[in-house]
Each structure stands twice: as C-alpha cells, then as structure tokens.
Amino acid sequence: MKKFMDETFLLTNETALNLYEQFAKDMPIIDYHCHLSPKEIYENKKFANLTEAWLEGDHYKWRLLRANGVDEDLITGNADDYEKFLAWSRTVPKAIGNPLYHWTHLELQRFFGITDIFNEKNAPLIWEKANAGLQGEGFGARDFIIKSNVKVVCTTDDPTDTLEYHQLIRDDESFSVKVLPSFRPDQGLEINAEGFLSWVERLGDVSGISITNFDHFLAALEQRIEFFHSLGGRVSDHGINTLLFESATKEEAEAIFEKALHGERVSLEEEKKYKSYTLVFLGKQYAKRNWAMQYHMNVLRNTNTRMFEKIGKDAGFDSMNDGLLANPLKQLLDTLDQEDALPKTVLYSLNPNDNFIIGTMIGNFQGGGIPGKIQFGTAWWYNDQIDGMRDQMRTLANVGLFGQFIGMLTDSRSFLSYTRHEYFRRILCNLIGEWVENGEYPRDMDTLGEIVEGICYKNAQEYFQFV
Fold first, then answer.
1. Under a CB-based contact definition with an 8 Å cutoff, are residues 317 and 304 in contact?
2. How does residue 368 score in pLDDT terms, banded at 50, 70 and 90?
3. Which among 24, 335, 369, 435 would be 20 to 30 A from 59, CA to CA?
4. pLDDT-based confidence at 467, cuts 50/70/90?
5. Cβ neighbours of residue 427 closer than 8 Å, sequence gap 6 or more
6. Residue 280 phi, psi dihedral angles, 5° rounding
7. How far apart are CA 315 and CA 307, in angstroms?
8. Where do the structural domains in the chain lie, given as residue ranges?
9. What is the mean pLDDT of residues 416-426?
10. How do 299-300 and 319-320 pair as beta strands?
C-alpha cells in the first residue's frame, strides 16, 4: 500500500515519476485565468488566520459544508472564524474521492509544512501551526504567488474597472510577477439584465464617451480594450451560460440597442441577434490586437432563488447546464473566420458531455501559422478533478494535437490554490506515463520532456505572448 500523498502521489508508474520529477515539478506557472484581487496583490494582503486565507470566498468548500449539514452562519455568516474552521475539519474527512480532500492537504503541506491529516482531532494543532506562519513574514498574498513560482497572473476585470492596482503593480519594481487584466464584458452583453443601463452609463463615464447610440457603445468598448491592452492585457474572457447565435446586421443590432436604451425589454430573438453581433465585433477587436479570447460555456447559475436573494451570486449555487453547443459555436467561430478575424480562442464547457464537441470543433479553425490557435481549455470548475482532467486530456489527445495544449489555470479566488497546478501536473505525467508503459508511445525522454514542459508552461508562454 502506498503512503498517503507521498512523493509518488498520483504517479503510478516509473515513467510518470521520472517525467514529473525531471520536467514538470519545477516549471513556472502562467495563471492565465483567475479571480484573484489585484488590490490584495498590490497590498500583499496579510491574513488574520487560516479561515480567512482558506475559506473566505471559496464556494467549492461552501458546497461541501452545506452538504454536511453545516449551518449557513458557519459558512458565509458572521460566526467566529475558529468555529468555521472546525466545521471544515469535520467535513473534510467525509470528502473521500473529492479533489478538495487532496487540495486541502497539498495546501497545508506546500505552504505551511504541515503533514498532519486534517480532521477534527488534529484541527487545533493545525490551526495553531498555520496561524503562527500567517502572522510571520513571507505569508502575504504576493508571497504565496512567488513561492508557487508564478510568472504571470491574469485577473478577471470588468471593462468599467479603473485598473488602478494593475498600474500600481506594473510600476512596482520590487515585484517581478506580471499581474495583467483580462477583459470580461459579460454585463455589456446581458441586454435584458436589470443593471444593464447603469452598466452602460458607467462604461460611458470611464471611457469618456457619452453613449446615446450603438456606435457610441461599440466605440466605448473598443476604447476600454485599448486601455486594457496598454496595461499588458492580452486575454478576454466571456462567461456564456448558454451560447446562442443568430446572424444580424448592424442596423438590426442598433435598433435592438436603442430599444434597450429606452428601458424596453427585448425579445429572445432580439437578444440573440444583439449578443451575436456584439460578440463578433469584440472578436474582431481581439484579433486585431493578437489577443486570446476565452469562452466559458454551459453554466446554470444562481439556481437557488432563496439563497441568491439572501447571499448573492458566486456563493456555490451554480451547476452544469445542458444547452446545445455545437451549431451556435460553429456559427460564431465561422462568422469570424469568414472575415479572417478569428482570434486565438480557448473554449471551455462546464458540461463534460461537450468534450468531443469542443475537441472536434477546434480542429475546424486551426492554422494561420499559430500552433494550437484554437484551444480546448483545461478541465474547468467541477471537472478539475482526476477523472475530469484525464477525460479532457484523453479527448484532446484522441481528436487533436495534445502536444500543443496550453495546460492548467487556477480559476480561483484563493492565493493558496496554486497547488492545483501540481495536482494537474501529476495527473498529466501519469497519463503520459501510462501510454509509454503500455507501449503506445516510445520512451523517448527528450521528446516526452518537451511535451510535458510545453503543457506545463512553455506552450502558454508562446501562445499568449505576454509582455
């Protein structure tokens, strides 16, 4: 029997162990999609205790706590931090088979040197050890990034954000990690949302453009894209719960936007046309600047109305959607491609039933002298566990060019979550090791090493070309 989470953790064969130790383990990290706070990075936020560093804002953990019958006051409420921590210690032992069990122990081991099994019995000692570290030097937000060997962090930023902390970080010579903004214009696409008009007003304020028609709106979006670009932004990100596409002329989109400006609700058909035209416009802007465009698709958000009204969004009440994806995705990509304006694109779906749809779709639009121009994004959210990662990588390998895969991201609000890259790298090396051990690929360590280093870091470095 193997020892719990020792140096061979998730590595079940000799080739996998060699690949991990020689090529994957020490590679830097490019975190090209996360939800970290640039303000907290700039200020090198210090954490009062382990609960603040570990549990605040982490809806992955909140879902398990609720499943364990923990009262909401001990999750998102005003209960004492130590009591929240104890509630987590009672929950984790029951999370057998869940990636959070592994992540919890990896975070304790890598950042705090704590190898004790996390449970209610050991909780007081772990609380004391971790908090002693957090109160000392080298345990701020920046320190966790540096310790994790991160070279680039791409935060998720609304077009109306001032990006003041990105500017401050850029000008801070004491911190060498690039912290770059990602353009997330979701609110500008949700034309029927309650806050759409107030968002348009904010967009006008920050861009200096009085938005009284659709041309003004598009000009303001382009101005903000250029502003993001001036601060090193090279990535956009779109949260598309259900992808819809309906070809539209500019005149149609203008009329629909004008209707919304007057406070009228637009029909579903009109919404589809508005979103489609605007997405195509944005895609062209990204292509013009050699950006990468990301689509995160098929999410069913805020499913629990009572808890949404009580707590708000991003609180652990989202799940997989099952919207049809293939045809609208083909239409959107093809529309851009017909005008030779399809940017580098990374596609994710929260529903693993879409794996082969995405895996085969990306092959339709490759080329242009850009290796892996259209990417099947890494297993995301509920899929970033052992089976989900293996399934995503095996699908990509079966129908695409696995050696050009740009690898892992954190998609997290926690500075401790960089251990997920280690988790991914171990799974990656084990999968490749299995192919080698089964005689499906030669044991050419030079070539294998290039593939592993590429997927862990170098492919993303070449793909995004952050400056």
1. yes
2. confident
3. 24
4. confident
5. 10, 386, 389, 390, 393
6. -65, -45
7. 9
8. 1-45+148-180+409-467, 47-139, 184-405
9. 97
10. antiparallel
Q: How far is CA 33 from CA 218, 257, 348, 352, 381, in A?
A: 25, 30, 12, 20, 12
Size of the chain in residues: 467
Query: CA-CA distance, 155 to 236, in Å (whole number)?
Result: 10
* CA atoms of 385 and 382, how far apart (whole Å): 7
For the residues 296-319, what does the mean pLDDT come to?
Answer: 94
How far does Cα 216 stand from its chain's mean position?
Answer: 31
Q: What is the CA radius of gyration of the chain?
A: 23
C-alpha 102: how far from chain center: 19
Contacts (Cβ under 8 Å, ≥6 apart) of 264: none
Alpha-helical segments (H) within 94-161: 99-112, 123-134, 141-147
Q: Using alpha carbons, list the distances in angstroms from residue 128 to 203, 256, 320, 459.
A: 47, 59, 38, 41
Question: pLDDT tens digit string along 389-419?
Answer: 999 999 999 999 999 999 999 999 999 999 9
Coarse DSSP helix, strand, coil percentages of the chain, rounded to the nearest 5 percent: 50, 10, 40
Amino acid at 76: T
Q: How many CA atoms lie within 13 A of 152 on its CB side?
A: 23
Q: Which CATH number does the domain 1-45+148-180+409-467 belong to among 3.20.20.140, 3.20.20.330, 3.40.50.300, 3.40.50.1820?
A: 3.20.20.140
Alpha carbon dihedral 189, 191, 192, 195, in 10-degree steps, equals 90
Class at the top of the CATH hierarchy for domain 184-405:
alpha beta
Q: What is the pTM of this model?
A: 0.97
> What superfamily would CATH give domain 47-139?
uronate isomerase, domain 2, chain A (1.10.2020.10)
Per the CB < 8 A criterion, the answer to whether 275 and 191 are in contact is yes
The conformation of residue 20, written as its DSSP 8-state character, comes to I
